[in-house]
Amino acid sequence: MRYTLSNTINKPLEEVIEKFKDPDGVKHWMEGLQRIEHISGTPGEVGAKSDFYFLHKKKEMKISETILEQNLPRQIKFAYQSPMGNNEVEMVFEKLNDHSVKQINNSYFELKGFMKVMGFLMKGMFKKQSLKFMIAFKDYVEQEVN
User: Fold this and answer.
1) Who contacts 10 (Cβ-Cβ below 8 Å, separation ≥6)?
2) Confidence (pLDDT) at 120
3) What residues have CB less than 8 Å from 22, skipping those under 6 apart?
4) What is the pTM of this model?
5) Which candidate, 6, 20, 11, places its Cα nearest to that of 131?
6) How far is CA 77 from CA 59, 68, 70, 91, 121, in A?
């Protein structure tokens, strides 16, 4: 399953990237995130691995992240592994002008087991969750939540 989503963030590119790279800021835009554990590599660089722990329907869920590419401020690509399957997310930031940035999320999912069967029916749910995180990030950057 593949999809692309985008939105516009009304802040300068430098500020958007600074907020995106801030590991303490993630809690403001990834709903349900309980903690992040750095596993290996240099944080924020290619090859870095971390485990993200989410609370979902009163159950803890672990998603493992590996940074595949890092060309910020332009682009960064992640691989995620969970019991549901594998996911690659490429986040692209395009400067529109001095005060706004287009954020583009290119996602690819390879689901496992029962989720493979359900994936076709649940594509909208995956897109909705990705868009929810993107909008929350936009709000975090624009509203300057601390």
Assistant:
1) 99, 100, 142
2) 63
3) none
4) 0.88
5) 6
6) 27, 5, 6, 6, 26
Distance CA 60, CA 55 (A): 5
- Distance, first Cα to last Cα, the chain: 35
Q: What is the pLDDT of residues 62-82, one digit of tens each?
A: 999 999 999 999 999 999 998
Residue 118 amino acid letter: M
Q: From 3.40.50.1860, 3.30.43.10, 3.30.530.20, 3.30.1360.130, which CATH number describes the 2-30+67-143 domain? A: 3.30.530.20
Q: What is the pLDDT of residue 121?
A: 64
pLDDT digit string, tens, across residues 19-43: 999 988 999 999 899 999 999 999 9
Left, alpha or beta for 6 (phi > 0: left; psi -120 to 50: alpha)?
Answer: beta
pLDDT of residue 115: 65
